[in-house]
Amino acid sequence: MKLLLLLLVALATVVVAMPPRKLRAGVPEKPYRYGQPKEGRKLVCYYGSWAVYRPGPGKYDIEDIDPFLCTHLVFGFAALDNTTWQITAFDPWNDLDDNGGKGAYRRFNALRQINPALTTIIAIGGWNEGSEKYSDMASIPERRATFVQSCVQFVQLHGFDGLDMDWEYPSYRGGAEEDKIHFAALLRELKVAFSAAGLLLTSAVSPSRVTIDDAYDIQALIETLDIINVMAYDYHGAWDTYVHHNAPVHGHALDSGNNTYFNVEFTINYWVELMGVHSDRLTMGLPLYSRGFTLDDPALNQIYDNATEAGIAGPYTRQVGVLGYNELCEIHRDQGEAFQTHWLDDLKAKYVIFERDGIRNQWFSYDDIDALAEKMALIDALPIGGAMVWSVETDDFQNTCGEGKNPLLNYILRSLNGFVPTPDPDRTTVSPPSSTTKPSVTIPGDDVCAQAGINPTGPCSGNYVICAPNGAEWIVTQGSCPPGLVINPEILNCDYPDHVAGCQKKKH
User: Has UniProt tagged this entry with the keyword Disulfide bond (predicted)?
Assistant: First the structure.
């Protein structure tokens, strides 16, 4: 029987070794062809705000986000206070303006001043938040009511367009069997309040069939959620004792038990079947990072070969067994021919083997443009609403690979809608939140435009103009800060008067 299985694998798996010139060099011709670009598809992009603390070239702040590459930007994450049962900022110093904070929420939402078509959402939860306190909150109607009210106020106060409910996962990780019922009730109560306030309600959901069946009341999701982001990744990783792909399109000949469900094709088709005519609300999650292992024996490097140790940690993501695409690009640059990419034709997926301490024992699965092409073809063939990525700060935003900045995001957007709406904007400054804006006009502008970008209209004023060069003239857009704020000329953004020299209120 074992010999038969090995023969099946030999027939089913085509491994193509690729020259180390580029991460994506030499992939076989694709079996799919794209149809006409689809209008209105979504590209939902999560941003992991802790990336601001990464060292060196891995540091990624709000101003590194290209607001034209996504239709929806999701800020990860807010948290649940399990003493008050209210939503709260996870990192107040980074997220808020209070006490000299960095104002990430404000700056994140100000990206809509650059791209007015952009939708911004705050996510609550995530893997590290766990499940238990969400289970405790959702189990008691009074706690749910407190949470719902706090969410509406929080989203409105900080200027987001909606909330992403990222409870991972109801009925699991310390939750209760009744979580499925309570999560449905919570979503329905959130929907009533959010609809009244004109806000979006979305959720990130599991790719696992078993978790889907245990955690989600599908009818409740249909009734309440504007977008359902299917996390079609993390099927395999360092928690396994064998090598397998993070996000394979198809299954493997040796997959058995629950592993037969652990591929993108099964996950998305299962969700489409469950959602029925409402499947256009689904987005397919795409990882912009890799997961990997240290091979027990470097000579045994095929799917299901032994790997009892996690792969290396990247210099920026700093988590064993995880590398951003940007980190893979750096390893490729540094190792040259020791870095070899391979194509698994049955899985329609990529992996790479490279050295650690002179031994080629690092095995990492990942998606590049060629692997993403297979997934974009699957999206094209299905009645779903678009794609989702986790997460923007692990794309090659420094152009280390030589494919341009953000090559994966650019490719995904082109594949979804046939074009990139605009070149990378000049983001030396980010426009502040505006309570009122007026249409742009083209004028000589010398009297109001001292420089490109934001120009205050006077000292200690909350009014400003945004000046964009247009030959010998300027394109000028007028705007104003929210009430009580003024333009701080040092940071060219809205700020409290007490923070701006000469604008402090006199004390009597």
Answer: yes
Is 177 inside any structural domain? yes
List the structure tokens of 15: 């491994």
Please check the confidence at residue 302 and state whether its pLDDT lies above 80. yes
Taking the C-alpha atoms of residue 215 and residue 169, their distance in angstroms, rounded to an integer, is 7
pLDDT band at 462 (very low <50, low <70, confident <90, very high): confident
DSSP code string of 421-484: SSPPP--SS-PPP-SEE---EEE--TTT-SSSEEEESSTT-SEEEEEEEETTEEEEEEEEPSTT
Total domains, the chain: 2
> Cα(84)–Cα(159) distance, rounded to whole angstroms?
22
- Percent helix / strand / coil, the chain, rounded to 5: 35, 25, 45
Report how far apart, in Å, the C-alpha atoms of 361 and of each of 298, 340, 364, 507 are.
5, 12, 10, 67
The residue-averaged pLDDT of 103-123 equals 96
Q: What is the pLDDT averaged over residues 51-76?
A: 96
Residue 10 in any domain: the answer is no
| Residue 436: Cβ-neighbour burial (10 angstroms; 0-12, 13-18, 19+) | exposed
